[in-house]
Design a protein that fits this description.
The strands form two sheets. Strands 1-2-3 form a three-stranded parallel β-sheet. α1 (6-13) crosses α2 (20-35) and α4 runs antiparallel to α5 (82-93). The chain is 59% helix and 10% strand. With 138 residues, the protein is mainly α. β4, α7 and β5 form a beta-alpha-beta unit. The protein folds into two domains: 2-98, no CATH class; 107-138, no CATH class.
Amino acid sequence: MIAVDTNILARFYCDDPDDPDARRQRPRARRVMLESPSVFVPLTVVLELEWVMRGFYDLGPETFCRTVEHLLGMPHVTVERWEAVKDALVLHRSGLDLADALHWVSSASCSQFTTFDDRGFVRRARRLKLVPKVRLPL
């Protein structure tokens, strides 16, 4: 089994024809992803891929979610904590930031999730009626 970094997935999923490095690297990324017998994707790579797709390629949540669903459907690919990733995609589609969604999903067995400055996360979690509740500290 080989593990892949974010840049492999970004080159595999994001076409960047104006970048000569991307043009050169994309075929190699495709070979890694399609010809390797077994691929492991760390949870942190999934999180970083969302940042790259949103921040660098200006792609929206739906495109990211479809990308990760494709990745999860590849039979030779193992995504770390894939169940949490699938649950986080549902929340991401509902308006939560992916990182917040992963934080919350990973904390589901706790009595509450506490944050200082992320009032948007608190509001969106309240709107979605998430339990455990996301709250500001008292």
